[in-house]
Design a protein that fits this description.
The chain is an alpha/beta fold and 536 residues long. The chain is built from 21 helices and 15 strands. The protein has helices spanning 3-20, 25-40, 50-55, 61-73, 77-85, 89-93, 101-111, 116-125, 136-154, 158-173, 185-188, 206-214, 242-245, 271-279, 282-294, 327-333, 381-390, 413-429, 453-456, 474-486, 511-520; strands at residues 156-157, 180-183, 193-194, 197-202, 219-225, 229-235, 258-266, 297-300, 303-306, 366-370, 395-401, 434-442, 461-465, 492-493, 524-525. The strands form 4 sheets. It has a 6-stranded parallel β-sheet. Helix 1 (3-20) runs antiparallel to helix 2. The protein binds 2'-deoxyguanosine-5'-triphosphate (DGT), calcium ion (2 copies) and zinc ion.
């Protein structure tokens, strides 16, 4: 963990412990804001002097001193004092979505519960209901949150697993015995959560590769190690504290600390068959095998072979495969177009007549939902435009948060007017990119938008998104989102569910109805490809 990240964590914990002890809430908010500022800092905090620290928005005298202490000694005295007063398990309890500091404090003081196990017991035996202002409904909600969080412990989000897998691939690629290497499984299929990471290596020297795999720097324990398969547990980077505080009811799910990673060794001539088999999905594989049998062939992780109905696998009898080196060859021999991993889910992909064109990074020509430092983004308008240009975009639309998003420093009407002005100026100066003036406008709980029509009218582009009241029932949520779609100034419906994977379920609107209405009113639906969200 970088020093900045460690410091941000420390400050966030201070804020939480202050909340828990019922101390001045302004002080807690100040620490939380400072945590975010440190986290967003592009430079190493250790290189800044006090004057430079004070120039950072969100950092005042007192916190600057604490930062200097931390950089110098690795300690913040106040943190140590608070830690002495707060049982450590309580901080874990506060990471359960929907369990705020007030509730955790009440549970602690009434029932003397300080751990997750204790809380689960209190929910089971009903003693939780003796906590002041705790009703059955609230208790059920906590139970559901814990269940969701427990699931989160088991499966990693795509954006957590991918960097780990890429690091492993980069590390093992350097070993000369490795002929081919790739990650497979649900990660290669781009699933939203990943149970374990599967790494495939083609080599003629399995022992050397397995040894290198087991001794990688982040390996915490070795679960199994054999000729063709090894399994280890790899350390996961700590959660990004930004996700704890940037959205109204998002509180962090403490992640597991390791992830299982499997290594499979494949003979080089079976690379395609091995990739196909271990990429899955299992359901897709079953369909392929059935198709092979229907064509008088048999498919396994070593290749596609003529089916001679013998008991021993064909590769053990020296039978030459019809195809095995690449996935494309195997699909071709099965009279199929190449099927990209992202759609190998047994959802009808075997009836495709040609390879569908999936959206690639290069297809993205413009970004129409972007925040600046005016609300909760990390770049100025100019920096954002420069970055967009660097990515080859022809257009960038600045859409900061609207006034009700207080947590995200949403813009009042006055600030929005000034912002539009600033965007227009920047656009005039900018070369080679169009900068549009937009807004990400809150869809309020009842479906009204956060700015009046006469304000919306002045914007080039309006993204309307739900940020609060995300536990509404599906019917109410559908009505709410439909109302936003029908507003004639809305161009895009932003992250319609508002979910954060493993953190909060978000809304479950009737997607069919939204899609219909969006078509009718010429409103685009945001996919939101951020790995925390993946809404559509
Ligand atoms: P996960 O790890 O739960 O996110 O999902 P996957 O799809 O990565 O599953 P995993 O790691 O158990 O296995 C990786 C792939 O290997 C899987 O997608 C298909 C293949 N595979 C593993 N075990 C079997 C099996 O028993 N039968 C078949 N047909 N394929 C299997
Ligand atoms: Ca897997
Ligand atoms: Ca696996
Ligand atoms: Zn949003």
């Amino acid at each position: 963990m970088s020093l900045n990240a460690a410091l941000a964590h420390r400050l966030e914990d201070i804020a939480r412990m202050m909340d828990l002890l019922g101390e001045d809430s302004f002080k807690a908010i100040a620490h939380s804001r400072a945590a975010r500022a440190i986290d967003a800092l592009p430079t190493d905090v250790a290189t800044l002097d006090k004057k430079q620290l004070l120039e950072i928005e969100g950092i005042g005298q007192k916190i600057a001193d604490k930062i200097i202490d931390f950089v110098r000694t690795g300690h913040i005295a106040e943190y140590d004092e608070l830690r002495a007063k707060v049982p450590p398990g309580l901080l874990d309890l506060m990471t359960i979505p929907g369990l705020g500091p007030k509730t955790v404090r009440a549970i602690w003081q009434t029932l003397d519960v300080t751990t997750m196990a204790g809380l689960k017991k209190a929910l089971e035996d009903g003693s939780i209901l003796t906590v002041p202002r705790m009703g059955q409904k609230a208790a059920d909600k906590i139970k559901a949150s814990i269940a969701l969080a427990d699931e989160g412990l088991a499966r990693l989000r795509l954006g957590q697993a991918l960097p780990i897998a890429e690091r492993i691939v980069a590390h093992l690629s350097k070993i000369k015995q490795v002929k081919e290497i790739a990650y497979a499984g649900s990660l290669r299929r781009g699933r939203e959560t990943i149970g374990d990471i599967d790494i495939l290596v083609a080599t003629t020297d399995p022992a050397a590769v397995a040894e290198a795999f087991r001794t990688m720097p982040d390996v915490r324990s070795v679960i199994a190690s054999g000729e063709s398969k090894s399994s280890v547990r790899i350390a996961i980077a700590p959660e990004d504290p930004r996700w704890d505080s940037s959205e109204a009811d998002a509180t962090a799910q403490k992640p597991g600390t390791t992830v299982q990673t499997d290594l499979r060794i494949i003979p080089p001539h079976s690379w395609g068959a091995g990739m196909m088999y271990f990429t899955g999905s299992k359901e897709h594989n079953i369909r392929l095998r059935q198709r092979a049998l229907d064509q008088g062939l048999t498919l396994n992780e070593f290749g596609l072979f003529p089916d001679d109905k013998a008991d021993t696998p064909p590769q053990q009898r020296g039978i030459k495969p019809v195809a095995s080196k690449t996935e494309s060859e195997i699909y071709k021999e099965l009279s199929l177009p190449y099927i990209p991993p992202e759609i190998r889910e047994d959802r009808g992909e075997l009836s495709l007549k040609e390879t569908p064109r999936l959206i690639e990074l290069d297809d993205i020509k413009s970004e129409l939902h972007a925040h600046t430092t005016a609300s909760d983004g990390s770049m100025s308008i100019e920096e954002l435009a420069a970055k967009a240009k660097e990515r080859g975009f022809h257009t960038i639309c600045v859409t900061d948060h609207s006034k009700s998003s207080i947590q995200a420093n949403g813009l009042s009407v006055e600030r929005l007017m000034a912002h539009i002005e600033a965007i227009r100026k920047a656009s005039e100066k900018a070369k080679g990119i169009t900068i549009l003036a937009g807004s990400e406008v809150d869809i309020l709980a009842d479906g009204r938008l956060d700015y009046d029509d006469k304000i919306l009218k002045q914007l080039d582009l309006v993204v309307a998104s739900p940020h609060t009241a995300l536990s509404q029932d599906p019917a109410t949520a559908t009505r709410r989102l439909l109302a936003a779609i029908k507003n004639k100034y809305v161009h895009i419906l932003g992250h319609p569910t508002g979910r954060l994977i493993n953190r909060r379920a978000g809304l479950s609107p009737d997607m069919g109805a939204l899609i219909e209405a969006a078509k009718e009113h010429h409103v685009a639906l945001e996919i939101n490809a951020h790995w925390m969200r993946l809404d559509l």
